[in-house]
Write a structure and sequence with these properties.
The protein is α+β, with helices and mostly antiparallel strands and 266 residues long. The protein has seven helices and 14 strands. The chain has two domains: 141 residues, Fructose-1,6-Bisphosphatase, subunit A, domain 1 (Fructose-1,6-Bisphosphatase, Chain A, domain 1); 108 residues, D-Maltodextrin-Binding Protein, domain 2. The radius of gyration is 17 Å and the shape is globular.
């Protein structure tokens, strides 16, 4: 394990920077089409997915890969990468600069490392959570981050997704924001910018990279369904599964926000 984690981090940094540089040249220049599940996809998503899979397979031929645009079945390997090549496709296609490349690394079905690079913002998040031989820690541009310990107040932020609007028929105790990228929604809690965030229909590639970063930063990850998300099971197809999720900056605020979004459970 001495050389393993530096190699993992270097690979994530290198390939996300390379793919991000190309995506920036296509930002707001491509047309999106609708997939069967209602989400959008562009040729940029497909190219980035293929490039990331190729680079990971070359660097770690013994690792499995699960990705949004290609491989949805968890392979029978201890280590598996989960790829979202372009989180925030709608933002990307319409010229809104909140989108990124998300890479999560699972060990025996549970995320232990995450890396999310947002090229337009110049931000790169990474973190380790219960990673074998590695201390728990979360970073933004190499600097340690921690979720907010601020008390609840009307000027605090809580972020939502477009599909969670149905849960907002009551008064929220702070200001609402909509960012348009699931992983960034979660990561703003990790960075201490928001008190919480909710996603009604995130897929496993929206979650895998952010999950270890949020927890390593001190945030609280709450599935809105009874079943635990992880570990994933070998041979299962995760292409159509959604995981309604609430992320909160601190345990004390869970009883405040969880009742307000609990209706989002499937």
């Amino acid at each position: 394990m001495t050389d393993f984690w530096p190699t993992v981090l270097t690979l994530a940094q290198t390939i996300s920077a390379q793919v991000g540089a190309q995506l920036l040249t296509e930002f707001a220049q491509v047309q999106a089409t609708e997939k069967a599940d209602g989400s959008l996809v562009t040729q940029s998503d497909l190219w980035a997915d293929q490039r990331l899979r190729q680079e990971i397979a070359a660097a770690f031929p013994g690792h499995g890969i699960l990705s949004e645009e290609a491989e949805h079945v968890l392979p029978p390997t201890d280590w598996c990468w989960v790829i979202d090549p372009l989180d925030g496709t709608t933002n990307f296609a319409r010229g809104i600069p909140i989108w990124g490349i998300s890479l999560g690394l699972l060990y025996q079905g549970t995320p232990v490392f995450g890396y999310v690079h947002l090229p337009p913002l110049g931000q790169s998040f990474h973190g380790f959570w219960s990673a074998p031989g590695q201390a728990n820690a979360a970073f933004l541009n190499q600097s340690p981050i921690h979720s907010s310990r601020d008390p609840l107040n009307r000027n605090g932020f809580f972020s939502v997704c477009s599909r969670s609007i149905s849960a907002l028929q009551q008064t929220f105790p702070c200001k609402i924001r909509m960012l348009g990228a699931a992983s960034y929604n979660f990561l703003m809690v990790a960075a201490g910018a928001t008190l919480g965030g909710v996603e009604a229909t995130p897929k496993i590639w929206d979650i895998a990279a952010a999950w270890p970063i949020v927890q390593a930063a001190g945030g609280v990850w709450i599935p809105l369904e009874a079943a635990a998300i992880f570990p994933l099971q070998t041979g299962e197809d995760y292409g159509d599964r959604s995981y309604p999720t609430l992320v909160i900056s601190q345990t004390d605020l869970v009883p405040v926000f969880q009742p307000l979004v609990q209706s989002l459970k499937q």
